[in-house]
Amino acid sequence: MSKLIVHGGTPLQGRIIPSSNKNAVLPVLCATLLTAQPLVLHGVPDITDVRKILDIFGKLGSSVQMDYASGVLKLHHRDTHFDACKHHLPEEMRSSIMLVPPLLARFGVARLEDNVKGCTLGVREIDPHIEVFRRFGGRVEHGEGSLIVRCDGALQATQHWLDYASVTTTENFVLCAATAQGSSVLTNAACEPHVQEFCRFMVMLGARIEGIGTSRLTVHGVEQLGGGEFHFEEDFHEITTFLALGAITGGDVQVRNRTPDNFPLIDRTFAKFGVQIEHKDGWSRAIRKGPLKVETPFTRNVLTKVEAAPWPYFPVDLLPIFIALGVRAEGNAMFWNKVYDGALGWTGELSKFGAHVFSSDPHRIVTLGGNPLSPAVVESPYIIRVAIALFMVAASIEGRSEIRNAAPIKRAHPRFVENLQSLGAKVEWAGEN
């Protein structure tokens, strides 16, 4: 069991170069299977999910040259082959489902394990993906412990309206539509920054996509895609995480950020807890003057709220980070997860620090901040930024704490502990396998 040992109470200070967004990198890696031309990707992070996908590519016969020190990946899927009887896609990673469209396009068949999963965020159905595959002409069959998707000939263009703006379903639609015959239209498409980055990569390959950054995408299918070179942007999740770490510890952390246009709502949410964000010369900085304090709404008979939902709402993946700030801030705040069932069940762990958190229902909690906290041993569920949120609280309290089951952090944040140590944090991994 991997756990973080934290000796908190040290204000973090310094500069951080964030990694790329795994939610952009993983769909891009899956998309590379659509082309037999050589590719060079810059800024590929050394995280467990990347290693698993590259391992699959190697087993399929692709040429994979990965330099984790520089983050440069050279890929060539010229000699790639796929056998649905022996090749298994990694079931512990939800992004595996995005390997289905390129395998269909190139080999006419894909096999997916029945229990594909990612973070434990409640029920995460695959029905929307199955519907997309079928609309493009795929046939979905149940095998022994797996799903087999087949298609005879080229995929056929379609029009589709999603039930909700799902990131992965949107990306699967684009992956299917890119080489389908005809023009496809998706309404209620997700438009998060990582979806936009993924779409820009597809355009670099030669895909014809209209409406990037909006809720309606039109994709004109092409016969084949090419190669090229692509540079990933910094992860806005990681930028926000390190800014929040600086704020909660009373430090001064600056993070490189070349996409400040993604941050107006995130900045306003920081301000609700007494933290001002400054963007200057390609860097972002969290400025805290005095204690963390929940902003009083103009309408005084309501609570300050952080409502998380699909972009351009506040990003749901960042909600735990701000719950940590809410626990440490003077005043009360409501946090509302409008996306995942069961994603707030972990907040009971905060009580081990002495925090007061009231669960309204499976989607809403209220933090009753300003209470004295003490170090604790806490258990994180398999959710990346919940482990980080628990670490944030521990880092803000003098004394020794443990964050158990913290390994999910490695799925998104390479060199997380090393970066923290460079800022002055007293933290280390323990009990690693």
TrEMBL record:
Its EC number is 2.5.1.7. InterPro entries: Enolpyruvate_Tfrase_dom, Enolpyruvate_Tfrase_sf, MurA_subfamily, RNA3'P_cycl/enolpyr_Trfase_a/b. Gene3D superfamilies: Enolpyruvate transferase domain. Pathway: Cell wall biogenesis; peptidoglycan biosynthesis. It is an enzyme of class 2 (transferase). It catalyses: phosphoenolpyruvate + UDP-N-acetyl-alpha-D-glucosamine = UDP-N-acetyl-3-O-(1-carboxyvinyl)-alpha-D-glucosamine + phosphate. It comes from the Bacteria. Residues 7-420 form the Enolpyruvate transferase domain. Pfam families: EPSP_synthase. It is found in: Cytoplasm. Its main location: cytoplasm. GO terms for molecular function: UDP-N-acetylglucosamine 1-carboxyvinyltransferase activity. Keywords: Cell cycle, Cell division, Cell shape, Cell wall biogenesis/degradation, Cytoplasm, Peptidoglycan synthesis, Transferase. The keyword Acetylation does not apply. SUPFAM superfamilies: EPT/RTPC-like. Belongs to the EPSP synthase family. MurA subfamily. This is UDP-N-acetylglucosamine 1-carboxyvinyltransferase.
